[in-house]
């Protein structure tokens, strides 16, 4: 591991601290009595306090120093005075330990008294301090010049997501997103509990990847010698509990789908699913809009939220539009009563790419997605989906071609999906078998397996039930104005980090010259490097072997360029 100059200096300080008999990583409890918020809200001149946190800045002026301490709730100014800390003749704790051996980023504990500076800032006068943890790597702190211009901000997304621990320290606003995320979960949980519904847990490792159509992560159970699948959905297990006699169950579940990654999809994500007996999708629409109004207020103090250029209002009630009416409104085509061939022809006429694996439901879904979905900015329920699109949903009571289903659209994205649940075991078996046929034709969104145990559960009888799923990550994106799912996950999935290659100094010299022009004639590059024939041959081979540079033969001669 190659250490930077600053890292080497910090390790040297670490050794000096230990030589002084100071443990840079003490095991003792530190008796913190206040937070920065406590101090500011209950400020009293001369009051004794004990706080702890990171040293984030300091301005040393001889025998005195102003600094900033950051704890989990914010920052506060602290004042180090040599004679207050070192009351006797020995001034080494201030002169040596504080001034020379502490660094920005170190955790320290402070015992002190409160006072107000001449400019009116609430400050802690340090009476004693304790090193609690020595930071060996400097924080990526931004710098501000005399004109107020900020430089070197830690804002590269890949670095921020990969080093979320540093991101949270130096970008305090990031923490606010996750505080709001927790508020959302707490508010939703309270809403369900107050309604009398029961929070449950269902298996993450499942013998059949059911309840949704998605590519699962596959693992193997050694003792049972069977394949298992990471949960893609928890729907079928929650319905089993309704069969078992619970009137209302819900779960915040971690789901896993071995599919693409983009700004709105992560392979590991959080969904909430709730199932309530003796209800239908009309009741669930009312329940959903009341729930989201409650959650928006709990998170932001208002029903309104800004997302990009839009202001969204989660105040109930929400507009309700059938899928057929939506498609007819935006395309002029009425899907009602049309055959698969007619719908396929209409999709082709709209310029939608179709293939033979697409059944009627998939074709309608593509038409809606291409032409309608993006038009719904304010919360809108899209209702009454074609039966082919909803294999777990009850047939519509007024139209056997449709199902009693809704999706809630916000800013052109789905954030909730709900059904009057199918509880006819014979109908359910036929739907599963139809999905199996679609999967055999190549439809990658069709369910390719049948959960026979779930069918057996339905045969014992499930009462009329309505169920709803909400993508929690996407919902918090809307409530915190974040366009990327990575911003609302503490640790989003990342590509493996590329380790810097350890190359020789001579190879580095050649690479530095190349980086200035990207491509040079080989003889010129060799001349500029100043290396002997032996060192040149060794170094250029090192660069090409590690795919850092390549040599290309052209009509004009041999050229070297950066890869």
UniProtKB/TrEMBL annotation:
Subcellular location: Cytoplasm
MF terms in GO: lysine-tRNA ligase activity
Domain of life: Bacteria
Pfam families per the UniProt record, alphabetical: tRNA-synt_2 (PF00152), tRNA_anti-codon (PF01336)
Keywords tagged on the record: Aminoacyl-tRNA synthetase, ATP-binding, Cytoplasm, Ligase, Magnesium, Metal-binding, Nucleotide-binding, Protein biosynthesis
Note accompanying the cofactor annotation: Binds 3 Mg(2+) ions per subunit.
Binding site for Mg(2+) 1: 407, 414
Chain residues that bind Mg(2+) 2: 414
Obligatory cofactor(s): Mg(2+)
Catalytic activity field: tRNA(Lys) + L-lysine + ATP = L-lysyl-tRNA(Lys) + AMP + diphosphate
Leading EC class: ligase
Aminoacyl-transfer RNA synthetases class-II family profile domain span: 181-492
CDD domains linked to this entry: LysRS_core, LysRS_N
Record-listed E.C. numbers: 6.1.1.6
Family matches, as PANTHER family: LYSINE--TRNA LIGASE, CHLOROPLASTIC_MITOCHONDRIAL, LYSYL-TRNA SYNTHETASE
Family designation: Belongs to the class-II aminoacyl-tRNA synthetase family.
Entry-linked NCBIfam families: lysS_bact (TIGR00499), PRK00484.1 (NF001756)
Known partners and oligomeric status: Homodimer.
Protein name: Lysine--tRNA ligase
Organism: Hyunsoonleella rubra
Organism taxonomic ancestry: Bacteria, Pseudomonadati, Bacteroidota, Flavobacteriia, Flavobacteriales
Gene: lysS
């Amino acid at each position: 591991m190659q250490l930077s100059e600053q890292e080497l200096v910090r390790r040297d300080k670490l050794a000096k601290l230990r030589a002084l008999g100071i443990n840079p990583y003490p095991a003792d409890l530190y008796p913190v009595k206040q937070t920065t918020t406590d101090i500011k809200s209950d400020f009293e001149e001369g009051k004794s306090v004990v706080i702890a946190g990171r040293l984030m800045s300091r301005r040393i002026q001889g025998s005195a120093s102003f600094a900033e301490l950051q704890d989990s709730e914010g920052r506060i100014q602290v004042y180090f005075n040599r004679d207050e800390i070192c009351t006797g003749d020995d001034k080494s704790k201030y002169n040596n330990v504080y001034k020379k051996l502490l660094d920005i980023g170190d955790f320290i504990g402070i015992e002190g008294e409160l006072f107000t500076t001449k400019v009116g800032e609430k400050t802690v006068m340090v009476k004693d301090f304790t090193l609690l943890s020595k930071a060996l790597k400097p924080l990526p702190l931004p710098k501000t010049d005399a004109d107020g211009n900020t430089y070197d901000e830690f804002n590269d997304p890949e670095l921020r997501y990969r080093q979320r621990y540093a991101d949270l320290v130096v970008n305090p606003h990031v923490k606010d997103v996750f505080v709001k995320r927790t508020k959302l979960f707490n508010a939703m949980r309270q809403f369900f509990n107050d309604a009398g519904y029961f929070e449950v847990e269902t298996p993450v490792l499942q013998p059949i990847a059911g309840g949704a159509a998605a590519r699962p992560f596959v693992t193997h159970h050694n003792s049972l010698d069977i394949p298992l699948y990471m949960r893609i959905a928890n729907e079928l297990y929650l319905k089993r509990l309704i069969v078992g006699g619970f009137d209302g169950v819900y779960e915040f579940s971690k789901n896993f789908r071995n599919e693409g990654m983009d700004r709105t999809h992560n392979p590991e994500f959080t969904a909430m699913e709730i199932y309530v007996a003796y209800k239908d999708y009309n009741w669930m629409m009312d329940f959903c809009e009341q729930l989201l109004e409650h959650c928006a207020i709990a998170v932001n103090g208002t029903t309104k939220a800004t997302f990009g250029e839009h202001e969204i209002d989660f105040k109930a009630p929400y507009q309700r539009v059938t899928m057929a009416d939506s498609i007819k409104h935006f395309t002029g085509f009425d899907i009602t009563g049309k055959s698969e061939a007619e719908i396929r022809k209409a999709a082709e006429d709209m310029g939608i790419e179709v293939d033979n694996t697409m059944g009627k439901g998939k074709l309608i879904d593509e038409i809606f997605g291409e032409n309608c979905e993006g038009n719904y900015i304010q919360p809108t329920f899209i209702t009454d989906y074609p039966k082919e699109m909803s294999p777990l949903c009850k047939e519509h009571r007024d139209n056997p071609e449709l199902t009693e289903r809704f999706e809630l659209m916000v800013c052109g994205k789905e954030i909730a999906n709900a059904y009057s649940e199918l509880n006819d075991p014979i109908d359910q078996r036929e739907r599963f078998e139809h999905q199996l046929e679609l999967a055999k034709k190549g439809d990658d969104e069709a369910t390719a397996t049948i959960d026979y145990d779930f069918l057996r559960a339905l045969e014992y009888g499930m009462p009329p039930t309505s169920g709803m799923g909400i993508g929690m990550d996407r919902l918090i994106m809307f409530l915190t104005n974040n366009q990327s799912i990575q911003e609302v996950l503490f640790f989003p999935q990342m590509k493996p980090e590329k380790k810097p290659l350890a190359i020789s100094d001579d190879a580095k010299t050649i690479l530095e010259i190349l980086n200035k022009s990207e491509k040079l004639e080989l003889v010129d590059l060799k001349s500029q490097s100043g290396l002997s024939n032996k060192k040149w041959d060794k170094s250029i081979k090192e660069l090409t072997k590690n795919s850092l540079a390549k040599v290309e033969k052209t009509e004009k001669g041999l050229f070297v360029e950066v890869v």
